[in-house]
Structure formats: structure tokens, C-alpha cells
Amino acid sequence: MSNVVTLERLETVGIIKIDSPPVNALSTAVRKGILECTKQAIADPQIKAIVLTCAGRTFIAGADITEFGKPAQEPGLDKVLQEIENSPKPVVAAIHGTALGGGLEVALACHYRVAVKDAKLGLPEVKLGLLPGAGGTQRLPRAVGPELAVKMIVGGDPINADAALQAGLIEEIVDGPAAGAQIFANKVLAENRPLRKLRDDDSKLAAARADRSIFTNAVAALTKRARGLEAPFAAADAISYTLDLPFDEGLRKEHETFLQLLAGEQSIAQRYAFFAEREAAKLAGVPAGTKPRTIERVAIIGGGTMGGGIAMSFVNAGIPVTLIETGEEQLTRGLGVMRKNYDASAARGGIPADAPAKRMALVNGVVGIENVKDTDLIIEAVFETMTIKKSIFGLIDTYAKPGAVLATNTSFLDINEIAEVTKRPQDVLGMHFFSPANVMKLCEIVRADKTAPDVLSTAVAVARKIAKIPVVVGVCDGFVGNRMLMARTKQAEKLLFEGALPQQVDAVITKFGLPMGPFAMGDLAGLDIGWRSRKDRGIKSEIEDALCEAGRFGQKTGQGYYKYEGGSRAPLPDPDVEKLIDATLLRLGRKRRVVTDEEILERVTYSMINEGARILEEGIAARPSDIDIVWLYGYGWPIYRGGPMHYADQVGLRHVADRLSYYAAETNDPSLEPAPALKRLAQQGGTFAGSR
Ligand code: 3HC
Ligand code: NAI
Description:
By secondary structure, the chain is of the alpha/beta class. It folds into three domains: 5-254, 2-enoyl-CoA Hydratase, Chain A, domain 1; 298-478, Rossmann fold; 500-587, N-(1-d-carboxylethyl)-l-norvaline Dehydrogenase, domain 2 (Orthogonal Bundle), CATH 1.10.1040.50. The longest helix is centred in the middle third of the chain and has 21 residues, at 328-348. It is globular, with a radius of gyration of 28 Å. The structure holds 3-hydroxybutanoyl-coenzyme A and 1,4-dihydronicotinamide adenine dinucleotide. 3-hydroxybutanoyl-coenzyme A (3HC) is lined by residues 22-23, 25, 58, 61-66, 77, 98, 100-102, 105, 124-125, 128, 130, 132-134, 136, 278. The site of 3-hydroxybutanoyl-coenzyme A (3HC) has 25 residues, from strand 5 and helix 3.
């Protein structure tokens, strides 16, 4: 018998226990073990009922994703599930932690399911670019009806035990999984209950079979946000087989689609992103066992756009915040924006009606930096000016308690310089959130020269606690994300000087899958900020300067690279902008040429990749996958393209380097010359992923 799955008999109940840390994924050994133990339990005359349970923190969390893409090993999961479902003795799944993907599919093949109160059950395969491949799309609709099944499979979010009980996905909520399941199994035996095989139960399909709109409406509601993704649509099709086809036919077609998606680029990218996210949490250069400091209360200095959003992120995780502003008026404004945001989410049903008041009660708004004194973590989010930040860090140093972690949310400034004004540079680092900070998941954790290892691990731990995805980066102009963004913006602007229009560039980028193009993004951020800073530094950007001189600052003035009508945020191409671009080019003696969409895409994305290669070479990011996480969660890079570095690997580094060299020569732009690291990998036929 395999040592990851064991069978034990407790009176008349056979307990099959899976013990395969960390998450009891369905590796070959686990599948084999379940199959063998189920056969043995069926063959053992003393066993009358079977309980399937897991050791450790969770029930089976799914197929073993590390086995995907490798040659399939016997037994397949379908064979294991058939054995369970066809068992003449009742099989009860005992669920705790998370029953996800293949894990829930195992449970669905059992005749009964019980779960502890805090268990979660779901089919999240779409998040990996897949659909459930072992009957989930056929059995779940039979268990809970097609409407909820669509929500769970096409949406991919799990439900809790209470919802599962209500929907008929589980029979009972129990105190302890194995003991509760054993009691339940005895009840089944005592009552001589018939085996409940979902495959044979079409009762919950009847309504949608009679009125197809029940199904199509549920699908429409969920797929409207699935732009560019293949899996949610394939999953919806597979669920529809329950309405049209016999079970076995549906099962066969589901598996066929699963294999197609598994081999597709989107799922490869999404699985890559799953592991990249977990890799990013592993800190290079921090000794194992480094203990994070305790963070119980946080101070945020500056209650503007970022400070307010950061405060909300902490409060949402139940961590009290001291919000510090310069005066009562600024404080009232900052707190007012937070309250308005909470009220809006409550009105949408996103949070309970009493949540806004409860959450705001966790915020203590005050004036004066001396109020940092009782806090364990201080995050500065004031104006992006070095002198102001330095004076604030001087004051923080005066008042903060020893051992407090001192963070700045600066976007570009040199954190080493900021740290040096304190007597404790080892406690200083960057925690760079992204706007809107209460929504965007990324937090760049910027390690300065003297940042202590435990300060770094504290920032990473606290970021995870507030549901952010932390990525450790080094100090440089713009860190990882904004530095690459600058490379992209430079190319986007140059394209305007050569003949492209803002709407053409943006359309190429949104078609590629990003939520917004560079010009719509500029309009959102406000063009005047860059204009003022250019004026201070004596730098010109002729087209953008001309827009600003015409009072076109972006969304805030209703006009920028686009026009915005009636207070709408939808960018509309503006013939006046085309005229302004023409006039600027005429003045500069330049002629517009036809710029193809291919050139736009290549110059805009390859310039970022090139900067990413420099970032890696300089050690600003530890891994190419960290750069990808920054772009996936900070800027909305489409998950199905895995991030810019993964995308480059897929396109081929030789091609990327060749095209960059070509554009460098064609447009007389040395910044487009392939970075040495990219050039080297391209010559070797290598990939970023393989270069570590
Ligand atoms: N296969 C292989 N490894 C897995 C895994 C899986 N399904 N799920 C998690 N792991 C690994 C992680 O990579 C991580 O490894 P590491 O420590 O070496 O980095 C470790 O388990 C712990 O994972 P987390 O850090 O994510 O732990 P959490 O406690 O935060 O979360 C979890 C646990 C909720 C189970 C989360 O890991 C998760 O969501 N896992 C993926 C679940 C999933 O997508 N299941 C469906 C798989 S596809 C499928 O089942 C196809 C089927 O239909 C045929
Ligand atoms: P903001 O102008 O909206 O807010 C700054 C706030 O700081 C104002 O409310 C101001 O009253 C307050 N403030 C100024 N001096 C102060 C002091 N001495 N004590 C207490 N409060 C003080 O600016 P925003 O956009 O929130 O930016 C803040 C920081 O975050 C900057 O460093 C910026 O670069 C960075 N950042 C901004 C992002 C964005 O998209 N807006 C994204 C990521 C980082």
C-alpha cells in the first residue's frame, strides 16, 4: 500500500486517509493510493461503509499542477472516481480546509459529503486556464443545479460550507471531519439509505432543460468580464452538455476539452503565474527562520489618494490604523473619501450594510507626526518630493518607537537617501502600493541598502496579511513596474511623432489584453503632473506639452489625449488632438508615416521586456517571474499571457532581440538596442525562465 494513502478500519467503517503535504494534491501516488484503498475497502467484508478524509491543513486541493504538461501516469483520475462511484458500499467525503478542483471532483464522485463549518468548496480550474477535467462540469450541476454550478465553475470562486449545505452539495456540517463523517456513515447504514450517485440524478437539471434562459443568463452574467480568456467559455459549454447529452457523453467531451486547454498557451501562462506568485513570496538573502516583527497597529502619513486606499487595505484585514494629516480639513477630506468608498461598496452589496461604520471605527484620524509613537509600522504616503519626505522621516525617527518598521510609498525616489536621514536605516524600506490601493493587489517591497532581513520579511508578511501580493525589488528609478512603464511610455510617445494616433496605440494595447492603453492611462493620472515636472527640469515632450498648454490635463479637465463627455470616463478620440499632433509635427518638420499595429505592439512590449532584462541583470528583481507578477497584479497585464517576461519566452528571445535591433536602427533609438542579458540569451537560444 502507498504510504501517502492509508486504510484503517474503525468498527464497520473503513477510513481512507490521504496524507500528502502540503495540500494533498492528487499526485500519481495519491491517485494510486486512493484506488488501491478503495478496492481493499470494498473487498473487506467487515467494512460496510467508507470515509474518505485527509490529514493536515486541507482536504484534496486539486490535481497536482506540477504533473501537468508531463506524460500522463496511470491511474487516471477518472478511473479512481469510477471506482468510488461504483462502490457498492456508501462512500462519504469528509471535507475540511479546501476541497478544490480535482479534490471536489473526488468528493462529487462519493455518495455523500460532509464538511466542517469553515471548509471551502470550489472548482477554480478556470483560474488556471482549464475546466474541471474529471466530471466536475457534469456532476456539480446535478448536485446544485446549473445556475450555481455556472457561478462556481465559470466564475471559479469557492463557496463556504453553509452555502454548500443550502445548495445540497453537502449533506451535513460536522464538528471534526473524520469523526463527523464516521457518525454520518453509521447513520446511512442504520437507515439503509440508497447510494446517491450524482451521475444518475437529473432532478436539478429539469428547470433549465425546460427553460434554457436560466442557464444562458447565468453564463452571460459571468462571461462579460472574461474578455480574452478561453477557459470560462469552454467551461460554460461543458456545463451545457448536462442539459443536452447523456452523462457519459458529457464526461467524454469535458475531458477532451480539458486536454485541449491543458496544452494551450493560455493555461500554460496561467499555471506559470500560479507558481510565480508563490515563488515571489520566497525571499532571497533572508536567512531561513528569520522572524517577522509583530505588527498590531499601523500609522499612515498622508490621507490622499494613496494613503486613504492603503488605510482601507489594513482596515479590511482588521488592523487598526492611525491616519495622520497636516490639518483638520485634509483629514476630514481623506476620511470622507474612505467612507464614501465603503458606502459605495455596501450599496453594491460588496460588503455588509454595517461594514462601513465598523471599518471606519478602526481608523483614528489625527494631525501631527508625533502620533506615530504607538505604532509598529509607519507608511509614509505624502507628496512625491524628496525634501518633504526627508523632513518627515526625520520626524518619524524622533517619535517612532524602537523596532518600528518605517516604510515609504514613494514611486520613484531614492529610498537609500530617505533612510539616511534616520538613525535607523536598517528599519527603512519601500512599500510601494498601486492605485487604487484598496483594489490593486501588488505591493512592491523595496529593499534599500541597509534594510534588515527581518524588516523585509515583516513587510512581506504584512502585505500578505492585507491580501496583497508582495514582490521584493531593489532601489532604482521607478523600481520594477514604473521603470518598465517609463520605457513603454517613451515608445508610445515616439510613435505619435512618427504618425500613430493615441487611439491606435491604445487599441493595440487593449486588444492585446491590458485594461488600458498608455494614453488613456496618462489621461487618468493627469498630464499636468509630468508637464510641471518637465518644466522644472527643462525637458520637453512636444505633443504632451502642447496638450497641457491647451489646458488638456486629461480626465480631470474633460480633455487630454481624448475627450470625455458629460463627466464620463470613456475616452473618445478627438479630431482636435489629431490636428494638434499634425501642427506639432509640422512645426518640428516631421512627416507622418503609416505605423502598423504590429510595429506598435512590438515597440511598446519589447521595450518593456528589454528594460526587464536590464532590471534582472542589475539584480533589481531576483527572478523574471517576479517581474511578471509586478505586471500582472500592478498594471493588469493579461493573466493568459503570463507577464512580459513569460510572453517574451513564448515569442522567442531571438525574435525579440532581432526586432529590437531593427527598431533601434530604424528609429535611431539606442535605448532599443537589446540589453546584454537579452542578447546573450537570444544567442544561446535560451529563455528568461531557464536563465535562473
Ligand atoms: N498542485 C501542486 N501544488 C500545489 C497545489 C496543486 N494543486 N496547490 C497548492 N500547491 C502548492 C503550492 O505551490 C505551494 O507550494 P510551495 O510551498 O512549494 O510554494 C504549497 O502547495 C502551498 O500552497 P499555498 O502557498 O497556495 O498555500 P495556501 O494555504 O495559501 O493556499 C490553496 C492553499 C487554497 C489550496 C492554494 O494553494 C490553491 O488555491 N491551490 C490551487 C487549487 C487549484 O487550483 N486546484 C485545481 C487544480 S486543477 C485540477 O484540479 C484539475 C482537475 O479538474 C482535473
Ligand atoms: P496626494 O496628493 O493624493 O496625497 C498626499 C497627501 O499627503 C495629501 O492629502 C497631503 O495633505 C498629505 N501630506 C502632505 N504633507 C504631509 C505631512 N507633512 N504630514 C501628513 N500629511 C501630509 O498624493 P498621492 O497620489 O496619494 O501620492 C502619495 C505618495 O504615493 C507619493 O509619494 C506618490 O508618488 C506615491 N504613489 C502614488 C500613486 C498614485 O497613483 N497616485 C501610486 C503609487 C505611489
